[in-house]
Amino acid sequence: MLAFLDTLRDIVGLPHCLTADADKAPFLTDWRGRYTGRAQAVVLPADTQQVAAVISACAAASCPVVPQGGNTGLCGGATPLAEGEPAIVLNLSRLRRIRQVDALNNAITVEAGVPLAVVQAAAEEVDRLFPLSLASEGSCEVGGFISTNAGGVQVLRYGNTRELVLGLEVVLPDGRIWNGLRALRKDNTGYDLKQLFIGAEGTLGVVTAATLKLFARPRSSVTAWLAVAEPAAAVALLGRLRGAAGDRVTAFELISRPSLDLVLQHIPGARDPLEQVHPWYVLVELADTRVEAGLMALLETELEAAISDGAVLDGVVAATSRQADALWSLRENISEAQKREGVSIKHDISVPISAIPGFIQQAAERLESAYPGVRIVCFGHLGDGNLHYNQSRPQQGENDAFIARTAEVNRIVHDLVRDSGGSISAEHGIGQLKRDILALYKQPLELEMMRRIKDAFDPGGMMNPGKVL
């Protein structure tokens, strides 16, 4: 082992090969604090060549590798296992170069350790937009959001990460470097290999750089916080707005009252936008590349009709960008508020948009019947069918016993997701959290094909073991 660690130190330099327990600790626990693993070392390479050299050394030593970026994942996918052979955590946060910005081709090539917010800023400098938008955008990194196929609030208009990637550079499990950094919209030369690594959570190789799509930067936008009586009214409102505004509806978020209550309780400075309490809210954003797009007038016209019909109970339209930011802050801080409140059973699910009202109603009925008094925190990206559907006990003393029944709660929720034609993971991935659950809801043939792909790329099972499969 000592010779192996010396090899890693020679590759990345002594300060960037961490072996002391105190130095490794920040890299061994996930953001939620749910998983803590073991590692021989945390290695921080500076470039793709060093990544390849580290992977080659690990392959020669038969040492597992856990790729890691900003460590903001929610399913334990970037955390080493607590049992078994200790791995190497390969943290890519030093790969921070923006290699090229091509405004005419609407493309940007960046390394895996570049934070999402930096990509957004680089796009803005050339009057372009990189539309992926996450609550963790200040700390999540390119390699991480590609490896988990992150979604966020603007999937409705621009698609998720899979639809935003033009090309990849990947270090394979044997240390070879695949340069697939093509900035093409059309390339019909066989299998689209990059798609295998998007959403693979580092189990097939290590993404070291990516070429991403850019878009025209919006010049005008309007944001509104609206109260509705039930999810069915929100779905109807989404249809109304998309019929009137098309793809200028860039975000459409559903937020339950318990979700807002947690933010008001735990996030300093948070304020309820409306005077009266309502059971459900919608946060909607319209945007256009034209300065004078008439978005405010369009939204107000549609809202007047919706209020007249009783579909919208109340609402506020942001008059300034500062007011819009305050409304978005309420939505973006729900996960942080839940974390401060305590442990909950979390679900990141998707169902067809038309099935959302029925799912929410039936899931609540089944959970309340099984666990009277359960608190359900439901929020998410209604515009693309993705809900974050979480449960806990309001009384801290009762919550531990409830959390111990996670498997039972999961089965109630996931069975209904399956029956609704949905997915048990919409945007957070599988990681450790859902690895065993996946086998219950994925078709056997799909699992077989996934294992064959894994065996083809990583026959030794060295890359991120214990994740996904």
Tell me about this structure.
The protein is of the alpha+beta class. It is 36% helix and 20% strand. It contains 17 helices and 18 strands. Strands 15-12-14-13-17-18-16 form a 7-stranded antiparallel β-sheet, with helices on both faces. A hairpin with a 4-residue loop joins strand 17 (375-381) and strand 18. Helix 8 (231-245) packs antiparallel against helix 10. The longest helix is centred in the middle third of the chain and has 15 residues, at 231-245. The radius of gyration is 23 Å and the shape is globular. The relative contact order is 0.12.
Topology, please?
Layout: H1 2-12, E1 17-18, H2 21-24, E2 39-43, H3 48-61, E3 65-68, E4 87-91, E5 98-102, E6 107-111, H4 116-125, E7 128-129, H5 142-147, H6 155-158, E8 165-171, E9 177-180, H7 194-197, E10 206-213, E11 215-216, E12 220-228, H8 231-245, E13 249-256, H9 257-266, E14 280-288, H10 295-309, E15 314-317, H11 321-332, H12 334-341, E16 348-350, H13 356-370, E17 375-381, E18 386-392, H14 396-403, H15 406-419, H16 435-441, H17 444-457
Parallel strand pairs: 2-4, 3-4
Antiparallel strand pairs: 1-2, 5-6, 6-10, 7-11, 8-9, 8-10, 12-14, 12-15, 13-14, 13-17, 16-18, 17-18
Short key terms for the protein model shown above:
5-stranded antiparallel beta sheet; alpha+beta; 20% strand; 36% helix; 7-stranded antiparallel beta sheet; 18 strands; 469 residues
